[in-house]
Amino acid sequence: MKKMLIAGNWKMNTNAYEASELAKAIVTGTMNEKMNTKILICPPFINIPAVSEIVSTGQVMLGAQNCFSQPSGAYTGEISIPMLQYYKCDYIIIGHSERRQYFHETNETVNIKLKAIINSNLNAIVCIGESLEERQNGQTFAVLEKQIKEGLMNVDSSFASQIVIAYEPIWAIGTGMSANTEQVQEAHSFIREQLKVLFGDKANDMIIQYGGSVKPENALSILELPDVNGALIGGASLKADSFLSIIKIANELLSD
Ligand code: PGA
To answer: Which numbered atom of ligand 1 lies nearest the CA of 211?
Structure first.
């Protein structure tokens, strides 16, 4: 059966009050129905304690947008995986294109963080995706292959179920211009093939999310694609109504 993970990446948005209100609305809005899809919200670090209490009563899981690979020590300004585990974070996003672009995240640092996350029994959402220039130059598959090979290097297949891939074409993030359904399915099926090279048949059960301007209006056409297992949502996850609409669409698709 198809698996789905609908995740909200709040990025650097919400103060503690706004984060609590948004989390409450999402928890309440998903309270009375059996959820077939998994639901995740990833607030800024500083709002994780407040949101952690709120999600503890519902069907919504908690995640972080980044972490450092060491468990503790003299790393000024960093946040460790055990700190996130204390607040019951289940997922950590790594390699987001904004972190690659502005904060020097590379396939190598993604690989180090990934191993630390899965060894701590948490789940990682590894973001990959090509720039507009790379797509126009016909390099999309080469870029994705390199990001997967290097980002997931030397990871044992026993960890496959703890790894989510988020395909996020950079040109579709925050632009309102989502990739079209052919582009999405083509990339996702390519990604699954690459995962099969690494993990064999376990790749068939792995979650591959699409991210980039997902909203209630285009969610169905994207989520129903065979190799799409959910979405990583930025802008539309900051409004409870639109995030809940996307969750509903995913849930109905799974109950068919
Ligand atoms: P967006 O962001 O939905 O605002 O395009 C997606 C993401 O960056 O994860």
So the answer is: 6
